[in-house]
Design goal:
The chain is of the alpha/beta class and 189 residues long. Helix content is 38%, strand content 19%.
Length: 189
């Protein structure tokens, strides 16, 4: 099985440093264009995708809707690949975060009050990977969020969390061969 990972397109709110993790976000015009470039890339590269699995959050759903205009695939929404929870700061500017306090904890445990830590998200990612084993698809396009994608890379490549978080996924499609645990990335736009 091959898993093609794409981060959802960016949003107007993110461009204005607003943290909305689980709240609805709105794709900006530039990023709508980038999503269209993604489906053009998939079509031009002749990737054979059997199904799209997406986060249940609006920005991921809006991204797959644009990508799927041409691909016309089955869609599965899965909350296991939603963004990290950050209840107490959602809807606020990023500058309210006390980064010094946040960075006092070991990397795996870092979170703000009521957030999920990286370990918490990793547990969801492992459940997601386990659920893929029951699928009868050879090629899966996953549209999710940075932390989830980086933790999928960590899982399949046996990276440390620190190394996984350094992996550049911007404007790229990450291709994981789940049979060989090999990973490659290709620039989309």
């Amino acid at each position: 099985m091959k898993i093609y990972l794409i981060r959802h397109s960016s949003t107007i709110e993110w461009e204005n440093n607003i943290i909305l993790w689980l709240l609805d976000w709105n794709l900006s015009e530039k990023w709508i264009s980038d999503a269209e470039n993604t489906w053009n890339y998939l079509e031009n590269e002749k990737f054979w995708i059997d199904v799209i699995i997406t986060s249940k959050l609006k920005r991921a759903i809006d991204t797959w809707k644009i990508i799927n205009k041409k691909l016309k695939l089955n869609i599965i929404e899965n909350e296991l690949i939603n963004e990290r929870w950050a209840w107490n700061i959602e809807g606020q500017k990023e500058n309210i975060i006390n980064w010094e306090k946040y960075e006092e904890d070991p990397l795996e445990l870092r979170k703000h009050k009521w957030w999920e830590s990286f370990i918490d998200v990793e547990k969801r990612v492992i459940k997601f990977v386990e659920s893929l084993k029951s699928f009868n698809y050879n090629n899966i396009l996953v549209i999710s969020h940075s932390v989830v994608i980086l933790l999928l890379i960590k899982y399949y490549n046996n990276f440390s969390l620190k190394d996984a978080l350094k992996y550049n996924i911007n404007n790229k499609i990450i291709i994981i061969d789940a049979n060989t645990n090999t990973i490659e990335s290709k620039l989309i736009y």
